[in-house]
Amino acid sequence: MTTLLQTLSNQARNMAARSPWIYRINAGSCNGCDVECATTALIPRYDVERLGCQYCGSPRHADIVLITGPLTARVKDAVMRVYAEVPEPKVTVAVGVCPISGGIFRDGYAVHAPIDQHLPVDVNIPGCPPRPQAIIEGIAQAIAIWRERL
Amino acid sequence: MLESLYTPFAALLFPGGLFALALGLTLKGFDRRLAARLQARVGPPLAQPIYDLVKLARKRTMVPDVACEPVFLGAPLIGAVSMALAAALVPIPGFYTPDPVLGDLLVLLYLLTVPAIVLMIAGSASGSPFGAIGFSREMAMMLAYEGPLVLVVAAVAMRTGMGMGGLISFSLTDIVAYQQSHGAFLFDPVMWPALLAFLAFYPANLGIVPFDIPEAETEVLEGPLLEYSGPALGLFKIMSALKAVVVLGLGVALFYPIAPEGAAGLLVQIAKLVLLMLIGVTVVRVSCGRMRIDQAFRFFLKWPLALSVISLAFVALV
Q1: Whole domain around residue B122: which residue ranges?
Q2: Is the pLDDT of residue B1 over 50?
Q3: Domain coverage including residue A112
Q4: Which residue in B31, B59, B72 has the most chain A C-beta atoms within 10 A of its own C-beta, making it the best mutation to test that interface?
Q5: Closest CA to B49 of B240, B229, B215, B223
Q6: Cβ–Cβ of B44/A49 closer than 8 Å?
Q7: Which residue, A38, A144, B228, B237, has most beta carbons within 10 Å?
Q8: ipTM for the complex?
């Protein structure tokens, strides 16, 4: 009986892991990484929907959060608030070099990078901007982490 | 033929409830897959809507501080349950006849307005400004498409009633039986304007492009659904899957209920629903852009309304 329940629960987790919904937060990015994310999402060549991914407009629907930008002072509170609205279990992916180290903005007076001082980051995708293939690889790693948390 | 009365079995398992849910999710899967193929993509697996539901069941439901909690959480439940009931009222020609008293077009029409009302309530109870915008747009859409829908249904009911010697018959059983003996309304030129008006009603009621204005992701971030997460959002997904089965099944019953008796009737019904979903929903959705609310409102009060009035006049005069 318990093994049956365990099998069922495993099965359900495997099914659930095939439906990662993605939400993008722009933390003061120059928009380069956002364009790459949009390319990854929108053009037929990279079709992320075949992995079950869906870009959603609301943080409350999201499972995987993509953060771009060096977290400027102006958007910091808004980013923290939006991040808190994503329901558990969630995975955070830092896209581009800015959230990882600050990139070319690292010495700026209004920049709070690196972002992992403020949020738990699970996957880093370096690049300025990263290629769509790298973003898909990062999302695939994020799905693997998320599967363990489900 | 199943001589099922309106029992809990009909609402919970077949043809409402679980069966309709499985069918509706499969229809959504076909829809997403064909849409991807038409855009030269690979597309998600056929079972993707089921994966989404399982995922949502494992997430946490968050209620905003400003929301009215009982209404916020009750609205999706009422919507899903009402659609499960409605699915039990839709006949499957040759296989299932709903209860003669409750299997009535007027009951179905009332039940079909519940999802729109539930979305309005959900949008306003969530306390989000986007929800409020979604609320007002949903209400405008409903005012626009309900009129033509009622006239289309009246045209079909009058055609049946006059054919059977009376004036008007709102019984779904009569409508199906009449068409099975006298030929489907699909091939009846008098009914063609009504059929066109009904096809315009599909995308509006199912909330898809070009009429997905209340839930537009890129404008109002899914409007009423913005604040929903986890199982509560899953209930809305269940509601929309069931609604697809009800609305498509209603179209089959109104215009082409020709089917063999017995189990073959069930298979034919499923094939018809898939075909209708692909032609009436998917192809429309990938080939249009979203209208503005005023454009959609004007469109419905012009073309579908005119077509349904013409059809009603034809039926009354011919």
Answers
A1: 8-317
A2: no
A3: 2-149
A4: B59
A5: B240
A6: yes
A7: B228
A8: 0.85
Res. B2: pLDDT tops 50: no
Place of tokens 């690979």: B42
Number of structural domains chain B divides into: 1
pLDDT in tens, B263-304: 887 888 888 888 888 888 888 888 888 888 888 888 888 888
Query: CB-based contacts of B287: which residues, under 8 Å, 6+ apart?
Result: none
Q: Is residue B1 part of a domain?
A: no
Tokens in use for B262? 């017995």
Q: Is B212 on the interface with A (CB under 8 A)?
A: no
Cα separation, B250 vs B262, whole angstroms = 20
* Cα angle: B71, vertex B77, B81; to 5 degrees: 140
Closest C-alpha among A83, A82, A121, A80 to residue A99: A121
Give yes or no for A122 touching B (CB within 8 A).
Answer: no
| Omega of the bond leading into A20 within 30 degrees of 0 (cis) | no
> In Å, what is the CA distance from B87 to each residue of B23, B116, B246?
11, 16, 5
What is the domain count for chain A? 1
Q: Is this structure's pTM higher than 0.90?
A: no
- pLDDT by residue (tens digit) across A51-106? 888 888 888 888 899 999 898 999 999 999 999 888 888 899 999 899 998 888 88
Searching chain A, which residue's CA lies closest to the CA of residue B43? A50
